[in-house]
Amino acid sequence: MSEMILPKIGLGTWVLKPYEARYSTIQAIKLGYRFVDTAQAYRNEVGVGEGLKEVFETGIAKREEVIVATKIYPLNVRPKAAVRSTYKSLKRLQLDYVDIMYIHYPAFVLGYSHKKTLGALGELVDEGKIRHIGVSNFTPNQIIDALDVIDKPIYANQIEHHPYLKQQSVLKFHKDKNIIQVSYSPLGRAKVLKDPVINEIAEKNKVSAAQVCLAWVINKGAYPIPKATSLDHLKDNFAALDLQLSDEDIKKIDAIDKHERYVHPPVVSPKEWKKKK
Ligand SMILES: NC(=O)c1ccc[n+]([C@@H]2O[C@H](COP(=O)([O-])OP(=O)(O)OC[C@H]3O[C@@H](n4cnc5c(N)ncnc54)[C@H](OP(=O)(O)O)[C@@H]3O)[C@@H](O)[C@H]2O)c1
Asked: Is there a domain that residue 3 lies in?
């Protein structure tokens, strides 16, 4: 299989019900999106799968043109459960393989092991069921420990990243290790869209606040996956690819003095997250 080029923007689907996920997947791919993100935890893989089936069958896009990513649910992180649940994901998605399979959280308390869990995913890579292994919500130290004991690369780490959670040191770590940073909640769950600096830059550039947030994430070399339910939001977000922010605008956003983490589930979140950066 040829080298994978990740599209600069993807479609997030957290919290979408299966019928909404089907709709958003179809509309997004019609608009030009070629990267869809779901997870076992979202309980909408069936809807994403139905949407994908429709776009492939109607010729809107070919399977090999769309990057499909899903994630192992924290309760499935033991090696056997990781493999079994991957097969179930493939069935729900109606796919022969997924492009990225992430470990959703470094859930050591639930039986996650760098060597055994990622080793099991490595076997699925060899079998052609997974193209790339991803991790999500991993700290740099956890990635260093994982890379020490596995023989396959980690393709991406999916973490929260938006103008209120800038992740500078983590971004640098990913670049140094050649690991792609996929940025989730890039709009700060819509809360960052009210920020006065973001809105001032949006007005000046005659674009939306969402586009400013997404263009800022892309400018940092990361890959945002905004979630959108309506066609208007899907269109608006995709148009961020056409927005080039000036250095001055980027500096203004960098200088926003806020640190907010919106996603912090108990039990599975890394302990380091409690520290402010
Ligand atoms: N790996 C993880 O642990 C993890 C955690 C969280 C999220 N994620 C992934 O990242 C994706 C995105 O993150 P998120 O859903 O938390 O938050 P987000 O993308 O930052 O924000 C989504 C919110 O913004 C609104 N919105 C989207 N586009 C808009 C626009 N152009 N103008 C105004 N409002 C807009 C959405 O409304 P509408 O729905 O009405 O369009 C929704 O309320 C998720 O869906 C999921 O795939 C992963």
From this structure: no
